[in-house]
Amino acid sequence: MRKILFILLFLPAVLWAQKLPQNSLKVNATGVLSKMLSVQYERRLGKHWSFNNTFFYRKRSQIPLGNEFDQLAKKYSLGLTGVDFEHIFVDQAHLGVIGYSPELRYYFGERKNRWFLGLFGQFEKFDAIIPASMDATYQGQVIEISKVPISFDIRTSSGGILIGKQFMLAKNLYLDVVIIGPHIGTGNKVYALVQEDLLGQLNESDRQNLEASIYQRFDLNRKYYQVTVTEDKAEINAFRKVPYASIRGFGLNLGFYF
User: Fold this and answer.
1) d(CA 71, CA 141)
2) Mapping DSSP to helix (H, G, I), strand (E, B) and coil, where does residue 158 land?
3) Which residue range forms the structural domain that includes residue 32?
4) Buried b (16+ CB within 10 A) or exposed e, 143-158
5) CA triple 88-92-95, angle to 5 deg
6) 27 pairs with which residues across the strands?
7) Res 58 pLDDT > 70
8) pLDDT confidence of 21, banded at 50, 70, 90?
9) Does any domain span residue 17?
10) How far is the CA of 163 from the CAs of 7, 57, 65, in angstroms?
């Protein structure tokens, strides 16, 4: 009798698992606009649960909506990153990134168009060139080094919550609409490099003044960052993990079950 009850209880779940495809592949439908290439593999774990893997890549190039991102960076970056972007020009930035995001996802309800909530991790490597302005002392006068390109090498790890909804378009074709995904974590590596001809003309006192000016202009916390100016380069290096926060914004992913 117990065996019969056990079979009756679990038979619907077994039949459901056999009826529905267990795997799916997705691509970023808005990649042409953002220049972000993204491929996802999702594996069903049950009626409501799945595990999603996202691999993404963006070749270093100018970012879309640069003016809007520049305004947001100047307004909020100090609180989020601990760096003042007042003299950093995000609208002229060239950004590249490669990364991976594992996600445990839960689908609500029984309807074919279902809301989902995901717990995800994110591991990213950024490659960027962003112009910035700095003040330097040269031959007793303060001069501005205007919009000098700064090369960034940044590696982060973070975790957050993803909210979205899945719409079935056909038997095995669907669209994932990602609404928002805030995440927080740490910058495991933050390194910035400036190479400027003027640096070779500065004396030791001028280089020390430039180091102090960089700390002050970008409001760098000496608990995390070290600034070094030599005859041929200026470096900003985080010698410990720094706080990091970001948001996965609106996205459309076209998927196919198999």
Assistant:
1) 31
2) strand
3) 22-257
4) eebeebebebebebbb
5) 95
6) 39, 254
7) yes
8) confident
9) no
10) 36, 22, 23
Q: What is the CATH number of the domain that holds 130?
A: 2.40.160
Rg of the chain's alpha carbons, rounded to an integer?
Answer: 24
Give a yes or no: residue 30 inside a domain.
yes
169-180 average pLDDT score: 94
Q: CA 122 to CA 103: how far, in whole Å?
A: 9
The pLDDT of residue 211: 93
Largest Cα–Cα distance in the chain?
Answer: 96
Sign, Cα dihedral of 199, 205, 211, 215: negative
Number of separate domains in the chain = 1
Averaged pLDDT score across all residues of the chain? 89
Dihedrals φ, ψ of 117, to 5°?
-130, 130
Measured in degrees and rounded to the nearest 5, phi and psi for residue 240 equal -150, 165
Residue 12's pLDDT is 46
Q: Flag whether the pTM goes above 0.90.
A: no
- 94-107 and 49-62: which strand pairing? antiparallel
Q: Which of 162, 165, 171 is nearest to 108 (CA)?
A: 165
pLDDT level of residue 138 (50, 70, 90 thresholds): confident
Joined tokens for residue 221: 């916390």
Q: Kindly give, in sequence order, each residue whose CB lies less than 8 Å from that of residue 218, ignoring residues fewer than 6 positions away.
A: 83, 84, 87, 88, 132, 236
